[in-house]
Amino acid sequence: MQKLVERAVTEALHDGGDEAIRLYVAACAERMAPLFVGLRAGEPGREADLDFYVKSVRDLWHADRPLADAAECVHLLEQFLELQPAEEGITDVAGTYAFFAALCLRYALLAHGSGNADDAVSCGHAALTAMGMLDQNVAGASLLLDEQRLQSLSLSGDAAGLWDASVTAGRERLRAVVGRLPR
Predict the structure, then answer these.
(1) Domain range for residue 31?
(2) Residue 44: which CATH number?
(3) At a CB cut-off of 8 Å and minimum separation 6, what does 179 contact?
(4) Is the residue at 86 inside a domain?
(5) Which residues, at least 6 apart from 10, have a Cβ–Cβ distance to it below 8 Å?
(6) Domain tally for the chain?
(7) Full-prediction pTM beyond 0.90?
(8) Rounded to an integer, what distance in angstroms lies between the CA atom of residue 138 and that of residue 166?
(9) In a domain, 183, yes or no
(10) Residue 1 lies in a domain
(11) Which residue from 17, 83, 95, 137 lies 20 to 30 Å from 46 (Cα-Cα)?
């Protein structure tokens, strides 16, 4: 499978050290978080999943140290419906983007806990895949290019404004997906 993560980003992740990896995955997960939280909010029985998701993304921003319970968090996340095999697969819009958000968080937690650059690349790949799909389905969208730009920014060494930019991008993504939902 072709990786969508730009070569320079991949190289920076492999050369940048654990803290650079943790900041990169925190930013990727932050941008994808509204897709999970916004699309799953209000679903009966999902309150604990939503709380866990939000807490996990918040904890990822502690880039100065690895998550002590990353493996346990990954195990809990893997119990989410979005990451369970289903015979019929995912066919609805909300389910598709909630899946990519959960997958992105899974790789973010793995990378944050281990410092593994390959897991970080997989995290970025999940975000880019989702944005590429969204671009194909929303006229005039350029979310894939924006995600590539923000991934590069997260490795530029200047983290100032990265959280704000990630939150703003996440909101834009949620608006784009909600615009595709059946009324």
Answers:
(1) 7-178
(2) 1.20.1590.10
(3) 138
(4) yes
(5) 3, 117, 121
(6) 1
(7) yes
(8) 20
(9) no
(10) no
(11) 137
